[in-house]
């Protein structure tokens, strides 16, 4: 019987440390499938910052570099400028990219750095205990908003895509999710297009993935996926923005 499905070469065969129902594992695999299909594994350099995916390099079978919290795109900029022949991407959560790393995100995009960013938005700080993140939606309960996020106190959720869309140097922006087989296929296609954008030297590209955090959402994995579809997507609509 012909084998039609297997683990990507770029994905190591190790046990996951992520919580049941977490979306990181799915996105890790999609990235690896894309890298294998584009045949760029020997050229890729990933930047792994602080967050739940701080040890993404344990899963990926290609070169990775650790970055301080929020500084992934600054590190990516330095690597890409020194080694323009490499394909450089960051893998960042909402706390890393949209809170402590907001300046790095905006300015790397505004400069049109030819790098790719995979942005995991689960609307909460996962690694540090479930606190409110910049992308926490209104009325969402977290460790620091036990009564739900109130715009009078904590402001509105930050929509990174809208902020970046106005910058002329940004080439590709797409928001996807992983709540079903169809959505996973769409996510993979978006990630692939973002990498191709960099390969063709077209400038900054970013894919935002609405992902689940059942642990700090206090939901089952199935409930978490439904919450993305029924609630989160109303605040962060899916689709190509630019």
Question: What report would you give on this structure?
Answer:
- With 242 residues, this protein is α/β, with parallel strands linked by helices.
- The chain has a single domain, classed as Rossmann fold (3-Layer(aba) Sandwich), CATH 3.40.50.
- Helices cover 37% and strands 16% of the residues.
- It has nine helices and seven strands, in the order H-E-E-H-E-H-H-E-H-H-E-H-E-H-H-E.
- Strands 2-1-3-4-6-5-7 form a seven-stranded mixed sheet, with helices on both faces.
- Helix 7 links the parallel strand 5 and strand 6.
- The longest helix has 19 residues.
- The mean pLDDT is 96.
- What is the CA–CA distance across the termini? 43 Å
Q: Roughly what is the average pLDDT, rounded to an integer? A: 96
Domain module count: 1
> What is the CATH architecture term?
3-Layer(aba) Sandwich
Read across the widest sheet, the strand sequence of neighbours is 2-1-3-4-6-5-7
Spell out the helices and strands N to C: HEEHEHHEHHEHEHHE
Shape: globular
Strand content: 15-25%
**Subunit organisation of the chains:** single chain
CATH superfamily annotation: Thiamin diphosphate (ThDP)-binding fold, Pyr/PP domains
Per CATH, the class reads Alpha Beta
């Amino acid at each position: 019987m012909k084998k039609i499905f297997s683990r990507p070469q770029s994905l190591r065969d190790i046990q996951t440390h992520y919580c049941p129902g977490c979306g990181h594992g799915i996105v890790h695999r999609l990235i690896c499938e894309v890298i294998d299909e584009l045949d760029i594994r020997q050229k890729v350099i990933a930047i792994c910052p602080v967050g739940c995916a701080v040890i993404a390099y344990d899963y990926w079978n290609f070169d990775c570099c650790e970055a301080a919290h929020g500084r992934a795109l600054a590190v990516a900029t330095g690597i890409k400028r020194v080694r323009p022949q490499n394909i450089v991407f960051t893998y960042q959560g909402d706390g890393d990219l949209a809170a402590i790393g907001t300046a790095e995100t905006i300015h790397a995009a505004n400069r049109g750095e030819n790098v790719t960013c995979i942005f995991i938005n689960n609307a909460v700080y996962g690694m540090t205990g479930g606190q409110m993140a910049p992308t926490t939606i209104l009325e969402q309960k977290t460790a620091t908003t036990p009564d739900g996020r109130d715009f009078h106190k904590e402001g509105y959720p930050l929509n990174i895509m809208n902020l970046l869309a106005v910058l002329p140097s940004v080439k590709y922006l797409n928001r996807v999710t992983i709540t079903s087989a169809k959505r996973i296929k769409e996510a993979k296609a978006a990630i692939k297009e973002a990498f191709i954008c960099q390969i063709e030297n077209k400038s900054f590209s970013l894919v935002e993935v609405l992902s689940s955090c059942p642990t700090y959402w206090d939901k089952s994995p199935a409930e978490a996926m439904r919450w993305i579809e029924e609630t989160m997507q109303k605040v962060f609509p899916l689709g190509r923005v630019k």
